[in-house]
Write a structure and sequence with these properties.
Elements lengths: L4 E4 L3 H18 L8 E4 L3 E5 L3 H11 L4 E4 L2 H11 L13 E3 L2 H9 L11 E2 L9 H9 L9 E7 L5 H8 L3 E12 L5 H8 L5 E4 L3 H14 L8 E4 L2 H9 L4 E4 L4 H12 L2
Parallel strand pairs: 1-2, 1-9, 4-5, 4-7, 5-6, 7-8, 9-10, 10-11
Antiparallel strand pairs: 3-8
């Protein structure tokens, strides 16, 4: 393999997009002129949207009298819109505001025309990308000075995941319903990508880690299936929770970037110059 390897650990579709943008950025920057890095896709988790008709009916019924809908990720948005196959403003007589935690989710909403209607759906997002997380969204929601008592809030999420925001809203007096609309399936141990990991020089690798759950799965596989460990490898994480998980599974060097792909790519280019 080439001098350095960048490991993209996102689900396949999202990884493909990031790899394309990252490749163009590397070529444009000139940092890889002497030796272009190898970019490896290792989709640690695959997103599997649920396709249950009863779930679609339940979501539609729940939204009919909701005061706020929160999507925890772009995956939540895509899985819900695929299930419902209707315009967002068709679900209730009133327009339901939407809360999201980051720029990728905001973009996913726009791709479905949400927030771009004649009478736009209000989209609530932390203003500063350093606060693109549950805590940042709660801070932003707090600035609206709503009376949360008896507000009906629907949270769309994957199986598992953090319940922090649901707990905070419940304590504030809201009636919260969390609905799982997708599951995450770990990468099969027979997948050829693991063989490429065995062959690489981990000391010259940078792992782009964007999910704490994926990091924990990586730690299990490395512990059970590999002779090598990660103490010579570097990790780049867009959130301190993910960085903490990366340190726990033994990455020797853990860098934290601001959230968003732009910041992730900028930090990757910086690592290539080291």
């Amino acid at each position: 393999m080439s001098t350095k390897t960048i490991v993209v650990t996102r689900p396949s579709g999202q990884a493909r997009q990031l790899i394309e943008v990252l490749t163009r950025a590397i070529e444009a920057s000139g940092v890889g002129k002497r030796s272009l890095p190898e970019i490896l896709s290792l989709p640690l988790l695959t997103i599997v949207p649920k396709s249950d008709e009863h779930l679609a009916d339940h979501i539609a019924t729940t939204l009919s009298n909701a005061d706020l809908a929160i999507f925890v990720s772009p995956n939540a948005i895509e899985s819900v819109m695929r299930l419902l196959e209707r315009d967002w403003q068709d679900f209730s007589k009133k327009i339901i505001p939407i809360g999201v935690m980051g720029g990728s989710s905001h973009l996913a909403l726009k791709n479905h025309g949400i927030g771009l209607e004649e009478n736009p759906t209000p989209i609530i997002i932390p203003k500063d990308n350093e606060n693109w997380d549950s805590e940042g969204l709660w801070q932003e929601l707090g600035s609206l000075q709503w009376n949360w008592q008896n507000k009906k809030v629907v949270i769309f999420k994957g199986e598992g995941g953090r319940d922090w925001l649901a707990d905070v809203l419940t304590k504030a007096g809201s009636a919260v319903e969390a609905i799982s609309t997708y599951s995450r399936v770990p990468l099969d141990l027979d997948n050829p990508a693991w063989h490429l990991v065995r062959e690489m020089d981990l000391s010259k690798s940078l792992w782009l880690l964007t999910s704490s759950e994926a990091v924990r799965y990586l730690g299990e596989v490395m512990n059970d299936q590999f002779i090598q460990n990660l103490n010579s490898a570097s990790a780049l994480c867009p959130h301190h929770n993910i960085a903490d998980a990366a340190e726990l599974i033994g990455f020797g060097e853990v860098f934290t970037s601001e959230p968003g792909d732009e910041a992730l790519i900028k930090s990757t280019l910086a690592w290539l110059t080291i």
